[in-house]
Amino acid sequence: SHTSSPDSQMPYGKVPVLYVDEKPLSQSVAICRYLGRVHGLAVDDPWEAAKGDEVADAVHDLLPHAAQMVYAKLAGDVEKAKMLATEFYTSTLPPVMRELDRRLDGREWFCGDKMTWVDVFAACYLSQLSSHHEGSLEAVPRLKSLVEKVVKLPKIEKWIRERPDTPM
């Protein structure tokens, strides 16, 4: 008989973990990609899918920088939090936002001709990041439009309104 070890319940020793038929899937982007495929929010074309993965990875790469700001703030280190925020919103975030905006030139969605998990992933993270810094989406009108379109979808709007309040 096979007894599952605690490690098999939480691969890599951390959350998030999605359980599908009692089997764990770890890593947030992998979970989003899987859910996108299952729920028809993915593209079949391998190149378009790869370009979407690229967008998701670029957005996901912003999170450690944002986390540093949050941790400094939670630790009460106001000066460090302020310095990290200035660096993030002036140096780290703008080039990523500009590239994402450029990717939307002449197209409505990041990959393919329909909304995919990539659009939802990017819009949700970027709306949260930009909500802490007024006007950060102003210089990127195509990206701003995509973010607004996604977060105004009834079910997503409802989730954002009702979700637990967390630091990130």
UniProtKB/TrEMBL annotation:
InterPro entries reported for this sequence: Glutathione-S-Trfase_C-like, Glutathione-S-Trfase_C_sf, Glutathione_S-Trfase, Glutathione_S-Trfase_N, GST_C, GST_superfamily, Thioredoxin-like_sf
E.C. no: 2.5.1.18
UniProt xrefs under Gene3D superfamilies: 1.20.1050.130
Catalytic activity: RX + glutathione = an S-substituted glutathione + a halide anion + H(+)
Organism superkingdom: Eukaryota
Keyword Transferase assigned: yes
Stated name of the protein: glutathione transferase
Domain named GST N-terminal: residues: 1-43
Species this chain originates from: Cherax quadricarinatus
Keyword line: Transferase
Keyword Transferase attributed: yes
Domain GST C-terminal per the UniProt entry, residue ranges: 45-168
PANTHER family hit by this protein: GLUTATHIONE S-TRANSFERASE (PTHR11571), HEMATOPOIETIC PROSTAGLANDIN D SYNTHASE (PTHR11571:SF224)
Similarity annotation: Belongs to the GST superfamily. Sigma family.
GO MF annotation, one: glutathione transferase activity
Gene Ontology BP terms: glutathione metabolic process
